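Late entry, written up from scratch paper. The run itself happened at the end of the previous shift, but nothing got recorded in the book at the time, so transcribing now.
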Amino acid sequence: MAIEINKGAASSAPTNNDSNHRFNLRWASHLRWAAVSGQVIVIALCNLFFRIHLDLTGLLPVLAAETIFNIAVWHRLHRHAPVTQRWVVGSLIFDTFAISTLLFYTGGARNPFSILYLLHVVLPALTLPRKQAIFLASFALLCEAFLFSVYIPLPALEIRLFAVAGFGSAVFVSAITLFYFVQKVTHEHAILQKSLQTAQAQAVLDEHIAALATLAAGAAHELSTPLSTIAIVTGEIQHRIVQEEPTSPLLEDIALIRSEVNRCRTVLQRMHPTHGMQGIDPHERVTLTELIDHCLREFSHANRVHVEHQNPHATLVVPRLAMAQALRAIVHNGLMASSPEQHVKISTEISENMIYVHIHDQGHGMPDHIAKRATEPFFTTKDPGEGTGLGLFLARAIIARLGGQITIHSQESVGTTVTVMIPMEKN
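Output as recorded:
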């Protein structure tokens, strides 16, 4: 079973006004190109195939104006200039005026393509707030009403065959355009919802991390005093034994105690608020070999860990301590899950600008429902007192902030492989 735990650096959802207006203006521009292409085709067919002579002196300037306006819109979009709601409203007003002018020269409201006004009612309703949508819909309906009485007649519309064919073509074009635009809006909405869900999940993760940081800071403060006391007392005991019995075997035990106290102090310094203010920074360039060595440095049973590098000199730009801590938590879980005579294997590989670190243990594996919860905070399968359920959770958080992710592949009675994916340094 393979479970993707987290994808880092989730892109931000396009929820700001500029992004929404840019999206609406972009698709209005797409539709305008389609409209201009369709208008050119219809005019060409009428003049060349159906022998319907249209007033090109009035139609061609409108087509030219549409083309120039759309080029200006594309230029603004591609140079990433700010896009306000006025641009969207102005764009739709221009389109309504353009179609009204074309209909004026081709029979007015009697032209079957006047049904395209339906688009100029629906599109504002889909893209604009209520007041602006009502204004544009009213403007479109007024233009159509005006064309019932003021227009240049088109004799071909008196022929029933042309009228029916034109009406059918207009309905077909309107239906296709509406379907296309609504589908695009629905697709973009789905992407927005997915981005929003990712952002919400990240917010929950950040809340957990903030709560843990507060807890860790309090623990560091409370533990610093007793550790200092232990260090002072063991120092005095060591000094007295050296004076009274320099060869006493107790000296080795006391040295071990002092070493472990210093180790605890180092851990508490990492938990101190002034250290945590820097988050997972500063980043530094480190090779895979250096990173794995730093990860294994604090293990007393490092000989149980076998390392295989595809490219030991591959370089990452990561916070060394935080990244080593994340890998250390995964390796520690593997060692705990395996029996003392079994080994944990670390293998690395590079593919498509990503570095993969596979950590495989020979434990009992996990069923699906356990593996799915493996990175939840405070979730653990260890016996009481042996684990806090925070190792994989913190590892996931650290790696996600670096733009990486974790996957877990576990099979009962076989073992578990945790894969860490990290982006390589961008040279």
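The first strand starts at residue 2 and ends at 7.
(Scratch paper discarded after transcription.)
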